[in-house]
Amino acid sequence: xxxxFEHYAVTEMMGDADRPPRRNGTLCFSHEWExxxxxxxxxxxxxxxxxxxxxxxxxIEAIGTWERDHDLQDPTWNYYDRxxxxxxxxVIEAGLATADEIQAALRTEVATQ
Amino acid sequence: xxxxxxxPTDREKLSAAxxxxxxxxxxxxxxxxEMTVDKVLGFFETRMGPFNGAKLVARAWxxxxxxxxxxxxxxxAIAELDFPDxxxxxxxxxxxxxxxxxGVHNLIICTLxxxxxxxVLGLPPYWYKDPSFRSxxxxxxxxxxxxxxxxxxxxxxxxxxDSSAQIRWFVxxxxxxxxDHLTEEQLAALVTPEAMMGVAVANAx
Lengths: 113, 205
Hints:
The structure holds two protein chains of two kinds. Chain A is mostly helical. Chain A has a domain at 33-111. Helices cover 61% and strands 4% of the residues of chain A. Chain A has helices at residues 5-12, 32-46, 52-69, 79-93, 99-111; strands at 22-23, 26-27. In chain A, strand 1 and strand 2 (26-27) form a beta hairpin. At the A-B interface, helix 1, strand 1, strand 2, helix 2 and helix 4 of A face helix 1, helix 2, helix 7 and helix 10 of B.
């Protein structure tokens, strides 16, 4: 049976610390930027720019760090905040962009908002 | 005099900026295109295959006698509707409907591709065949459903049905409140494959 990489990748996360939020059975994005982050990560992994498992490790680490430093009931928790952190780290690690380039892009984005 | 750059103090605005900036940077570098994200996420949003099951559920919602027949003899009830051949199952296969009611929620699991009710629900999602999903759903269904974003009251009984190649279960979700005015066709549009697998409920649009 043909399987999409994207489906495999998301299924791998089921039951684990890095599983994405779902609402009523499907993936749940509260904002457009969350979709952007998720889609970007899947696309890069599918393309071979980094290993999905490697990215997942970064994400699990980011989640673990947050949980260590925060109360688990802290309402400021957002899975996708951690996701973006992990994605930036994975992109740098994979040599797709440097930390400086990412910072510069962020400044441009903020300035033009 | 130097200007100090201020990042958004709003955490959410900052994450949004980071995500957008990263996407733009990767597009600029030719790593992805502007279409990439939509294309990737489109794979999760598209329903694959014919979704005849929605019509079955809508009929059950408007016709309580049909719902009763669907529960009692599913293939015969399915045959009442004008579906393509093979909907009620070829020889040796037997569809069974598990009816959700107030206080009772059904969840379907199976081990094989061949036990998924394809004619009713279209192609199965990849995760459905994941062994970890199956074993966890059998062992701790309430927790698995919560991971699917479905939090059921502790007073709701959860029944887990294990499909086989011979008996293929699907769920008839409860009709959502506030839908009395809808036509059967409009009701069918509220039914999702996820609701018929038991990892979601049907909601009024």
